[in-house]
Amino acid sequence: MTLLNPLKPFLAAALCAAAALLAANAQAQSAPASPASAPNGFTDAAASAALAKTASQTAAQPASASVTVTPGGTPAAVQWTLQVMRDGQQIDSFDGTTTLGQARTDTHHKVVTHNVGCKDQPAGSIDLQRTITVSPLQANAGAALLQIEAQETLESPSAPTTTDGCKLPPQPRQIGASHPGLSVPAGQWVNWTIVDKDPTIVYRVRASLAPPSAQP
C-alpha cells in the first residue's frame, strides 16, 4: 500500500517559483544598464561634457578693464579742458591732449596795473600768473582720472588805503593746490574748489578719451 505525501504538491510549486526567480535575476544582471537621462535630455556623460565646455569658455573670457593703450599698443591720450571760475565768472581756460602717464604744464600771465596814491595814478604792475599741470592717470570710455597741480597769484579783492585815505595797490598772494586723482565722467563737468572765499576760485574740468585721429 502506497502512502501519499500531502506536502508534495506545495513543495513542487515552491521549487518552480524559486527557479523562475533565479532565472529572472540572471537575465537582469546580463542585460546592459540603460544610461540615466539628464534633465535636458542628454546622458550624464554628454551633460558633463557640455558643462565642462561652458565652464572653459567662461574662464577664457577676459575681464573688462580700463582702456590704457591704443590698438597700436601705444598709451592712449586724453582730451581735457580746465576752466578757471572766479566768483562764478570764467576768467581763464586751459586745454590739451595728453598721453596717459605724461604731464602737460601751461602758464598764463595777466599783468594788471592799479591807480594808487593820493593822485590816483597808475603804478605798481602785478603779474597774476597761473600755472596748471595736468597728468592723465587712467581713462576709458566712461571716465578719466586726472592728477592736477596748480599755482596761482591772486590779489586781494579790497584795496587798502593809507591813513590819509590814499589808495595802495592790492596785495598779491600765492596759493597752491594739488589733486591726486580727480575722477571726471565722460561728457560731464566736474568742479574742484581751490579757494573758498575772497575770492572764490573753482576749477571746472571736463575730460574724455581722445578720438582716434588725435591719438599718438
Automatic annotation (TrEMBL):
<feature type="signal peptide">
    <location>
        <begin position="1"/>
        <end position="28"/>
    </location>
</feature>
<keyword id="KW-0732">Signal</keyword>
<feature type="compositionally biased region" description="Polar residues">
    <location>
        <begin position="154"/>
        <end position="164"/>
    </location>
</feature>
<protein>
    <submittedName>
        <fullName>Uncharacterized protein</fullName>
    </submittedName>
</protein>
<feature type="region of interest" description="Disordered">
    <location>
        <begin position="154"/>
        <end position="180"/>
    </location>
</feature>
